[in-house]
Each structure stands twice: as structure tokens, then as C-alpha cells.
Write a structure and sequence with these properties.
single chain, alpha+beta, Immunoglobulin-like, Serine Threonine Protein Phosphatase 5, Tetratricopeptide repeat, 11 helices, 57% helix, elongated
Length: 417
């Protein structure tokens, strides 16, 4: 049999009833409070407090606080008036009916909350699944578009090559035909000269090769003039990056180098605020190395301070924001990690080969932060962007599969672990 608590106290106003129940050494986690519009129970083994309320209350607006060895229950009255008593006087049979009604209402409330929670989870899973399907469709459409463009490009190149080949064949045929016509003209001229020479009874003087002087002179007259002597200037396009010519992105690469050079020269900090710093502490590269060393030793706050000062000196270095995002992830500052990763990705434009690894790291860090906020659809986008840059990374492939399993509801949810 439980021990009935009798040393409770209560106060009231026109709209509120406040009941204080001593816990008598009971632990907070073991206190069970059940409240309806006409019944209140506070159970902490082996003690029990029951109140069959004098009037009906609004259970949805009532509150309960447990702590410091006491449970305080604040009940909102349905009608603004002063109660004569806290509890109604009735027999055990009536109390039993009230208790059963209260328990039934409480079970219905729990069932309704469970259904609402299940419907909400179902809606979230449905939204996540639709988002993932949309992303996959966009990825398929992008792949098909790339294939279509490559096919059209290849077809155009083949047509251009066939046209050039046809033109070359026609030119060769014309040259060959012209050569045959020239030979026929020469042969005709020689025949006429021989006939004229024989009719006059003269002898035709032949050169050492057996050709007539007239034929030799005619051939010499038809030969083109010798080529002029000169030098041909050959220049080569300078290449900064080891990229194949057909895959070259020279304008983007030059713009990236220009932005990096401008960022190195930019100093945005106030001179008055930095006059007490040592010479090396005014160098963003030195501060970045210091932050990297602090991060490696586990001093994440020290690393954040070093990166903060370096960013004040130069706000155009993306590695400072990306590394500070890694520190915020370690310190559970998830929103700050998302902001720094986004700033790093904004500075890592245009996307070129040189900044590919940095873009992949920034995407992974922002995707990890989104997943910690349970925004798995957004996190999946960043992880897939990183995998596009480094498609052979097995760790990224495994992480993407885990996120997809969580979205589909087939993987372990970090919230329940």
C-alpha cells in the first residue's frame, strides 16, 4: 500500500490553483504526475498524493515543476471564482469512477500525441524522400544533358572533319587535272615543233637529257620563282596549370590567381588596434600555421582565436574560414560552422583544379554540420558535391549511403542513439 501524502499546501486566485507537494527525499526522475480536468495524482514510491478537484480545470494550460525537494502544480481554473475547498467530498465509489475516467483521458491523450508524432515523422520522411528523388532526377538530367552536349559536339567535329577531307580531295583532284592538262599542252607543243623542224630539213639541237632547247626554255619559264629566305616566328601559349588543352579553363584559372593575389595584399584591420602586435602576428600566413598547430593539439579555442585575427588581417583567404569551420564542428558550434563553410565556398570561385581539394573539404564540413542539425537533405547535397570533385573517395561514398539510409528510415537515427 502506498503512503498517502497529507502535508501538502495549496493557494488560489480567481483563475489559478497552486498545489505544493513535498517529495520527502524522492528522486526527480522517479516522480510521476498525472493530471486531468478533474483529477490530479503525484506518485513517487512509496508516497502517493491524489486530489479529486472541487471544480473543473483547464488541463492543457496547467503546468508542473519538480525540483528542490518539492513538486509545484499550477492548475488553470475554467471559471474565475474562489473555491471553498481544494477537493470535493465524495465516497470511494465515486472516487474510483473519477480515477478511471482520468486514466482513460490520459491514455487517450498519450495515444493522440503518439499518432501526431507518427504523422509528423511520416511527413518528414516523405519530404526527405521526395527531396532525394528530386536530387537524383536533377543529377540524371544533368548527366543526360552532358551526354547530349558531348554527342552534339562529337557530331559537329566529325562533320567538320568530313568537310575538310572532302575539300582536300577536291583540291587534289583539281591539281591532278591541271597537271594532266599542262603535260598535254607541252606534248602538243613538242609535236608541232618536231613537225616544223622536219619539214624545213633542219636538225633540232638536243641537250644532254634528250630534250629540245625550246622545251627546256619553256619548262624553265613555267617553274615558280625561288622562295624568299626568312625566319618564321613561333610562339607558344603559356600554361600555368597541367590541364589538357581541350579541357582548359584558362579564364577561370587566371581569375582565381588574380583573386588570390588581391587577397594576399588586402589588409582590412585597423592600424591602431594592431600596433601592439608583434611583426609575425601581423602575418595571416603565420597566424594560419599557428591555428593549424593548435587544432592538431586539440586546442580548438586557441585555433579559433588565431583564425579570427588572421581573418581580420585578410578576409580573402578561404582556408581560414574552412579551418575555423572545422574548429566550430569540434566545439559543437554548428551554425557558425555552416556560415564559415559557406564563406569559404564563396571565396573558392571560380572552381578550378587548384582549389578542388579545398572545395571538397568545405562541402564535407558544411554537410556534416547540416546532418548534426538533422537537415539530412541539405547535408546530402554537400556530400554529393564533394563526391563529384573526388569520385573515388570511398569514405565519402560510405557517408552518403549512411545519410540516404537515415532519410529512407532504414538506417540508425542519431537522435535515438
Amino acid at each position: 500500500m502506498p503512503l498517502i501524502v497529507t502535508d501538502y499546501s495549496w493557494t488560489q486566485t480567481d483563475s489559478t490553483v497552486c498545489i505544493s507537494v513535498p517529495l520527502k527525499g524522492g528522486k526527480v526522475e522517479k516522480v510521476n504526475i498525472l493530471s486531468t480536468d478533474e483529477y490530479l495524482k503525484v506518485h513517487y514510491p512509496p508516497y502517493l498524493f491524489e486530489a479529486f478537484l472541487f471544480e473543473l480545470v483547464d488541463d492543457d494550460r496547467s503546468t508542473a515543476k519538480v525540483g528542490n525537494g518539492i513538486a509545484v502544480i499550477s492548475l488553470q481554473k475554467r471559471t474565475n471564482k474562489v473555491w471553498k475547498h481544494l477537493m470535493m467530498t465524495t465516497n470511494d465509489k465515486e472516487k474510483k469512477k473519477v480515477r478511471e475516467r482520468a486514466l482513460l483521458k490520459y491514455q487517450e491523450k498519450l495515444s493522440s500525441e503518439s499518432r501526431s508524432k507518427a504523422e509528423k515523422q511520416h511527413a518528414e520522411k516523405k519530404y526527405a524522400l521526395e527531396t532525394m528523388m528530386k536530387l537524383e532526377k536533377e543529377e540524371r538530367d544533368s548527366i543526360l544533358k552532358i551526354k547530349h552536349n558531348e554527342r552534339e559536339k562529337t557530331t559537329a567535329e566529325m562533320a567538320a572533319w568530313q568537310l575538310r577531307r572532302k575539300q582536300k580531295v577536291e583540291e587534289e583532284a583539281q591539281l591532278k587535272l591541271q597537271s594532266q592538262r599542262d603535260n598535254q599542252d607541252i606534248l602538243k607543243t613538242m609535236t608541232e615543233e618536231q613537225e616544223n623542224g622536219c619539214s624545213e630539213g633542219g636538225m633540232v639541237k638536243l641537250d644532254q637529257r634528250g630534250n629540245s632547247d625550246a622545251k627546256s626554255k619553256r619548262k624553265q619559264a613555267q617553274l615558280p620563282a625561288p622562295r624568299l629566305v626568312g625566319n618564321i616566328q613561333v610562339t607558344f601559349t603559356p600554361r600555368v596549370f597541367p590541364t589538357a588543352l581541350r579541357e582548359s579553363r584558362v579564364p577561370e584559372e587566371e581569375e582565381w590567381l588574380k583573386k588570390q593575389a588581391e587577397g594576399r595584399r588586402a589588409v582590412n584591420a585597423d592600424v591602431e588596434e594592431l600596433k601592439d602586435l608583434r611583426e609575425e602576428e601581423r602575418n595571416p600566413d603565420w597566424l594560419k600555421d599557428k591555428g593549424d598547430k593548435c587544432f592538431a593539439t586539440g586546442d580548438y579555442l586557441g585555433a579559433v582565436n588565431a583564425y579570427n585575427l588572421a581573418i581580420r588581417l585578410n578576409r580573402q583567404i578561404p582556408a581560414l574560414y574552412s579551418n575555423r569551420a572545422a574548429c566550430h564542428l569540434k566545439l559543437n558550434n554548428v551554425h557558425k560552422a555552416i556560415e564559415d563553410s559557406s564563406q569559404a565556398l564563396a571565396l573558392l570561385t571560380p572552381p578550378v583544379v587548384v582549389n578542388a581539394a579545398a572545395r571538397a573539404r568545405a562541402n564535407v564540413r558544411r554537410g556534416s554540420a547540416f546532418c548534426q542539425l538533422q537537415l539530412y537533405a541539405e547535408g546530402l547535397q554537400d556530400y554529393q558535391a564533394a563526391l563529384k570533385i573526388d569520385p573515388c573517395n570511398e569514405a565519402l561514398q560510405a557517408d552518403i549511403q549512411k545519410i540516404k539510409d537515415i532519410i529512407q528510415g532504414t538506417g540508425p537515427n542519431p537522435e535515438t542513439q
